[in-house]
Amino acid sequence: MALFMDTRLILRKVTDLRCLTPRRYRVKEKWAATHAKHPPTRLALHHFDATYSVQLGKLWPSVRVAMLSERKYGALLNNFCHDAVLVDLQAKGCRDFITNREEDGQCVFPVFTVNHYLSCHPNIKCLVFPRGDVTRFKPARPDAYGLLSYYLMDAASVLPCLALDVQEGHNVLDLCAAPGGKTLSLLQSQTISKWFLCVNDTSVSRTMRLRKVLHSYVPKQFLTDEKLRITSFDVQVLVDVPCTTDRHSLMEDDNNIFNKIRVGERRRLPQLQLELLLAGIEAACPGGEILYSTCTLSQNQNQGVVEQAICLARENHGIQLEAVSLRPLTQMFRNTFHFAPDLHLGEMVIPHLAANFGPIYMCKLKRLT
Ligand SMILES: C[S@@+](CC[C@H](N)C(=O)[O-])C[C@H]1O[C@@H](n2cnc3c(N)ncnc32)[C@H](O)[C@@H]1O
């Protein structure tokens, strides 16, 4: 017994790394200097409590609990990978929420409308654990060619790509593309060889991450200049703008937009979002479609930006736009995600403890002139 106690004592001492650090290198942590009195995560929570309790009313307490809990991921399957991970993941209890929707019950929309989104993206597969199951995915492993088998992302982030509805012959512009989750979803489409994709992002470091993601998941023959260009323009435009990234802001103090030194940047966000959406609208041809998306619950950054963009495009550029209903899409996935009820413009996945995805806001506009 005494021996056992001694061993435990020694172990505890060894795991306390301070005893392995020479005294002159030890740093005494200074709380006042190293820990902000009001960490950005707390500032974000105060801000969200003030604005979202008004905006979401009685929904806010449950959305708040979900946002402060561990988020749920989806595994976007990499169709270019040669390993049979789909069967493995299904054996673990996952299901592809896009094609396997039995538990979504009866659909109230005509079959042709519901199937429309899927007919264009039969290959996009995103696996999720069932409602209420918070099992984590293991990191993806490379196949014999070095391509990773799946990409972990908020499963709701696939919805803007489905909503964009890319078809053969389209030119696609992903205006704010890094680190590349949505680009990768778009590239999984069966018709990838029949359209051109242009991806753009201002941030050099994030564009490097985007390149790394693409090279880890997509074979070289699809990354040639004729198929994919990493810069900026055309018909279908995905405008996935920078926003207050509500979940990140609540959970991580690093790189947090609620940090006091970033107040100006945060206040300028709606203006930047408006400029990006207008750039996307101008880049689209008449008849083209623009998909605006964010990962915030904020009305100012969502419907507010879209309303202003519709107005300014008409007044300043003579461009007429109409909002395209995404209701068929939300009906399709209503048992996988929780959608905000009755938004007058666009649709929004709201976090819920049983399906802790989002927030993801999306609004589709069609350029008429
Ligand atoms: C929400 S993230 C995009 C996430 C990406 N679509 C994905 O699914 O992985 C927003 C991106 O917008 C980029 N960004 C910020 N200002 C921009 C600008 N003026 N033009 C283009 N991209 C911009 C940021 O660098 C950031 O990578």
TrEMBL record:
Keywords of the record: Methyltransferase, Mitochondrion, RNA-binding, rRNA processing, S-adenosyl-L-methionine, Transferase, Transit peptide
The SAM-dependent MTase RsmB/NOP-type domain, residue ranges: 73-368
Annotated signal sequence range: none
GO annotation terms (biological process): rRNA methylation
UniProt keyword Transit peptide present: yes
Binding annotation for S-adenosyl-L-methionine: C176, A177, A178, P179, G180, G181, K182, D201, D225, D240
Domain of life per record: Eukaryota
Entries under InterPro entries matching the protein: MeTrfase_RsmB-F_NOP2_cat, MeTrfase_RsmB-F_NOP2_dom, RCMT, SAM-dependent_MTases_sf
Reaction(s) the record says it catalyses: a cytidine in mRNA + S-adenosyl-L-methionine = a 5-methylcytidine in mRNA + S-adenosyl-L-homocysteine + H(+); a cytidine in rRNA + S-adenosyl-L-methionine = a 5-methylcytidine in rRNA + S-adenosyl-L-homocysteine + H(+)
A family per Pfam: Methyltr_RsmB-F
UniProt GO MF annotations: RNA binding; RNA methyltransferase activity
Catalytic residues identified in the record: C295 (nucleophile)
Chief location: mitochondrion
Localization per record: Mitochondrion
GO cellular component: mitochondrial large ribosomal subunit
Stated family: Belongs to the class I-like SAM-binding methyltransferase superfamily. RsmB/NOP family.
Protein name (record): 5-cytosine rRNA methyltransferase NSUN4
Organism the protein comes from: Amphiprion percula
